[in-house]
Amino acid sequence: MNTRKFVVVDIETTGHAPAKGDRIIQLAMVTIENDRITDTYMAFVNPGKAIPRFIQDLTGITERDVQDAGPFEDVAAEVFDRLQDAVFVAHNVQFDLPFLQQELTRAGYPKWQGLAMDTVELTRLAYPTAYSYKLQDICSEQGIHLKNAHRADDDALATAELFLKGRDDLRTLPCETLELLHKRSFQLKSDLSRLLFDLIREKRTSGEVYGYRFQNIPLKMRMPIEGSALEPVSLSGDWHERMSRVFPKFEPRESQFKMMAAVEKSLEEQEELVIEASTGMGKTLGYLLPAVNYALESGKQVLISTYTTHLQDQLLQKEGKIVGKFFDAPIRFALVKGLGNYLDLHRFAELLQGDDESYDETFTLMQILIWLMQTETGDLNELNASSGGQLVLDKIRRSHFRKLTKHDSAYDFYEYAMAKAKNAHVVVTNHAFLLNQRVSERALTESAGAIIFDEAHQIVQTAVSQYEKSLVYTQWKYVFGQIGIFEDQQLYSKLYEIAEARGFASIPELLRLEGLSKKIFAGFDQLAAELTFHFTERFAGSRHKKNSVLLEELPMSLEGPREILRNLNEWIDLSQIIMQKAERLHETSLAERLVLTEWRYWTEEIMVKTENFGEIFIDSTEHGIAWVDGDLRSLPNSLTLYKRPFEVREVIDGAIGKYRGQLALIWLSGTMSVPSNDRFITNQLGVPESVSIEKFDPPIGFYEGAQVFLVEDMPEIQKVSQREWIESVADAVIQTVLVTEGRCFVLFTSQDMLRKTVELIQDTGLLDDYMLFAQGISSGSRMRLLKSFQRFKKSVLFGTNSFWEGVDVPGDALRAVIVVRLPFTSPEEPIFKARCEAISKEGKNPFLHYALPEAVLRLRQGFGRLIRSKDDQGLFIVLDRRIETKSYGHEFISALPKVEVVKGPLEKMVTDIEAWYNEQ
Questions:
Q1: In terms of domains, do 42 and 59 share one?
Q2: Which of 79, 285, 678, 710 could disulfide-link 673, Cβ–Cβ 3.0 to 4.6 Å?
C-alpha cells in the first residue's frame, strides 16, 4: 500500500452548486508517498463574484484574501498535473471531486480519471463509535491538530493525517476481519476496497492467525473477571483529608459533606432516604464516595440506578475514575443494561452469511466487524450507525425469545456483564432495567446492601414508558410487507419453497399460514379504515391537524380487533410449530439458513406487536389508558395507538417495594419537590410519608452570575391568535439573540409552535448570520444537536420537552435560556386528562394538585440548564406573562433559586441585558 501515491484535496467555495455559478475560493493539495506527507500546495482563487457573508464567517476567507488571486484557470494545469497517477482523497469526496471536475472542465481540461477514497467513509468504518465524523470533531477525537477548520490548507493537512491514521488503525485488524470487510467493500461509495485489499496482502505475508473468535469472527480478547466474593476492607482517613489529597485546590462545601453524612447514615442503618441536591453542590461524588466506602467496608454491593444508559456511561467514565483516587483498595465497577442493548453474536453470524443488502445495511455490518475488535461490552449503543443501519441493529439484539447454547453463552456479552456484576463493589444500571420484572429473576440485588436512585424523579416517567404499548400503522404495514403472501415473492414464498423441498411443513400447514396472513392483512386494513373514519369525523373542522382521542370515546366495535387477535395468535402458533420442525434439520444450505433466520426474526417481531395489539384493544381500560394519535393531513399513515399505565405507584412498588426494610434505599434528584407540595414526586414513587426529604443547597454565591427577566409587554396567550403570539415570540427571540450574540436555548412546550417560530425567524433573515438548530427540524439526535450548538459561537438551539432537563452546557457556551410558555402539559393530553379526572373524583383540585406542581418542576429543570458551575453566568428570560398576571405565578418564581428578578418591557430588557452582558 505504501507504494501508492495519494493526493489529499480540500476546497473552499462560494456555495455548493458550480452549475449555478458557485466557484472555488481556496484550494489545497497534500501529497502522500511511501507512508508520509511529501508535498503541500495551496492557492487562493478569485471566484469572479462576491463571497457570501456566511462563507466569510465560516472560512475566515475575505474579499481581501482573493482580490489579487487569479481565476481557477490560472491554477488548473498545476491541479491536473498533481492528480495524475494518484489516488484522490478528500473528506467527503462526493463534494470535492465533482466540484473540481466541473472547474477543470470549465477550464478546458478533461475530467480526471482514477481511484477516489473518502475519509468520511474511512473514519465511519475505522471508528464506528465516534460521536461525529465532521472533520473538526473526528480529528479532535483522534488527537490530530486542526488549526483552522474550514480553511483548505489546514483541512487538507488534517485530512491527510487522518487518512494515514485511519489506514494504520485498519492495519492492526486481524486478517480474518479484513477479509470479511473486503468481501462487502465493493458496495462502498468510494474505492476503499483497494485499500483493504492491499492491507490483506500485507497481513497474509506475516502469516499471523488470530485466536479469539466466534464462528470465525474475530473478537476483542476479554479481560478476566476480577475478584471473587466481596470481602470487607478496613479504611482510614476522613473525607476532608481525602478530598484535599485528591484535589490540591479543594474548597470545602459544607452542603456536600452534610449530604455525604446523610448517605453514610442511611447505608449503615439500612434506612430509606430522600435527598434533593441542587446543582453545584457535588451531588454525584456526594453519594458515590460514601457508597464505595460502604461497599469496601461491609463487603456488600451498592446498586446505582440512573435514568438513561447515557448517564450510566457518564457515571463510570467520569466520576468512576475520580472515585478510584480516593481509595487505596481496588474498586470493581460493573455496568449492566437491559438485554436488548447487547449484541447477539449468533444472530450477527447468521446475518453476516447473506450478501443481499442495501448500502446502509452493508456498511453497518462492516462497522460491527471492526467494533467487535474494540468493544468489551457488546453494547450496541456504542455504535454510531446510520438511520438505515438501525434495522440491522434491531435484528441482532439479544432477546429473551432465544435460549443460548452452552457455546453461545460462553461468548455472550450480556452473560459477561452479569458475571462481572456478581463480583463488583458497585453495579451501575438504569431505571428501566431495574423496573423490568425479568431482571428480578436474575437476582441482580442478591448481594446488594443498598440501592441508590439518581435522577429519582424520572422513575415515574420510566415506569410509564416501561409499560407503554404502542401500535404504529406504518410499522405494522412494513412488517406485513416483509412477510407477504406467495404471489408477492417476499419471505413467505421463500419459506414455502424451502419447506416444500425439505419437508419440514406440510402443504396444508403452509396454505393455512398464508390464509391467516390474508385474513390479518385484510382485517388490519379494515380496522385502519374504521379508525380513520371515526378520527376524521371526531375532529372535523378542528384548527389543529394533529389530535388525540381516547380509544373508548370512539364508537367502535371490538369484534374486528378480536378477530384480528385470534388470527394473529393462530398464525404465531403455526409459525412456531413450523420453525421447530425446521430447526431439527441436520444440514441446511446457506440460503436456507438465511431464510429461516429472517423468518424467525419477523415471527418474534409479530409476537411483540400482537401482545401490544391485545393490550391496546382488548384490555384497553384495564390498568391504563388507551388513545389514538393522528394527523388529519396523512391518515391512515399517521395513526398511532398507545396504552400507558394510569397509576405507576403499583408498578414501582412491585419492583422496589420488596427491598424496603431489607436494603438501604436512597432516592436522589435535583428536583424532588415544589414549594407548595414537598411530596409531589415521593407520593408518585410510593415512598412512605415517614421518610423525610433532606435538602442540600449549593455553596453561597453559586447563582450570583444568574439573572431572571420577566417580559411584561408580551401579549396574553389566551387573548391573541397563535399567529400574533408567535410573531411576538420571534421578535423577542431575535432581539435577545442579537444582544447576547447567540448561545441561547429557546424552550417550547409544543413542536408545532417551535416549527412555526423558527420558520418565521428564518423568513425575516435577521438571524442569517447565526446557526439555528431546531429539534424536530434539524437532523440528528438530541445530543448531536447539542454538540453542534456548542461548536459554533453564534448559535441558537430551539428545543421542546427533552431539552428542559438532562442537558449540560457549562461555561460561556450557554448565555441565555428563553422560556416561551410556562411548561404546563396540554389539557388534551390523554394521560394528563385522565389523571385530572381521577383527582377531581377525589374532591381535589387537579390544577393545584397535579398540573401546577408538574409545570413548576419543569421550569426548575429548565433553569438548571443555565448555571452548572460557580463561574457560570446567564440570563433566564420568561416570555409568558402568566408568571406575573396569574395568582399561581409566584409558585414558579419562588421555586427558582434566590436570584435577582427584573421585570419590564422587551425594549428595557434588551437594554438591561446589553448593560449586564458588557459588565460580565
A1: yes
A2: 678
Please choose, from the candidates 139, 30, 159, 39, the residue with its C-alpha nearest in 3D space to the C-alpha of residue 91.
159
Domain tally, the chain: 5
Determine the Cα–Cα distance for residues 426 and 224; give it in Å rounded to an integer: 18
Q: Give just the sign of the alpha carbon dihedral 613, 619, 623, 627.
A: positive
Residue 395 has pLDDT above 70, yes or no: yes
DSSP state of 886: S
Whether 310 is in a domain gets the answer yes
Is residue 620 pLDDT above 60, yes or no? no
**Is 223 part of any domain?**
no
Q: 883-903: per-residue pLDDT in tens?
A: 999 999 999 999 988 888 999
Q: Cα(276)–Cα(673) distance, rounded to whole angstroms?
A: 8
Helices (H), 583-674: 590-617, 649-656
How many angstroms separate the CA atoms of 294 and 817, rounded? 40
Within 8 A by CB and 6+ apart from 25, the residues are 12, 13, 14, 44, 45, 46, 47, 51, 55, 59, 61, 65, 66
pLDDT band at 920 (very low <50, low <70, confident <90, very high): low
Percentage of the chain beyond pLDDT 70 is: 96
CA pair distance 114, 191, nearest whole angstrom: 10
pLDDT score, position 780: 67
Output 281 or 529, whichever has higher pLDDT. Answer: 529
C-alpha distances (whole Å) from 859 to each of 628, 687, 714, 755, 872 are: 29, 24, 19, 21, 19
| Minimum mean pLDDT range among 313-322, 445-454, 469-478, 773-782 | 313-322
d(CA 516, CA 570): 8
Q: What is the DSSP secondary structure assignment for residue 660, as one 8-state letter? A: B
CB-based burial label for 681 (10 Å; 0-12, 13-18, 19+):
buried
| Domain that residue 510 falls in | 493-644
Write the pLDDT tens digit of every residue in 164-204: 999 999 999 999 999 999 999 999 999 999 999 999 998 88
Tell me the C-alpha distance between 130 and 36, whole Å. 25
Q: Looking at the structure, do residues 687 and 714 belong to the same domain, yes or no?
A: no
What type of residue is 467?
Y
* CATH assignment of the domain containing 850: 3.40.50.300
- Give the cell for residue 222: 476479554
pLDDT tens, position by position, 55-75: 887 788 989 999 999 999 999
In this structure, what is the dihedral angle of CA atoms 710, 712, 718, 723, given to the nearest 10 degrees? Answer: -90
Mean pLDDT, rounded, for 28-37: 94
Residues 90 and 21 in one domain: yes
Characterize 143-165 residue by residue with b for buried, 16 or more Cβ atoms within 10 angstroms of its Cβ, and e for exposed: ebebeebbbbbbbbbbbbbbbbb
Would you say 627 and 663 are in contact if contact means Cβ atoms under 8 Å apart? no
User: Which cell numbers hold the place of 146?
Assistant: 486542526
Q: Looking at per-residue confidence, does 147 or 709 come out higher?
A: 709
pLDDT band for 381, please (50, 70, 90 cuts).
confident
Would you state the pLDDT for residue 438?
47
Cell of 586: 441436520
> How are beta strands 333-335 and 272-277 bridged, if at all?
unpaired
Residues 394 and 434 in one domain: no
Parallel/antiparallel/unpaired status of strands 213-214 and 217-218:
antiparallel
Residues 638 and 666 in one domain: no
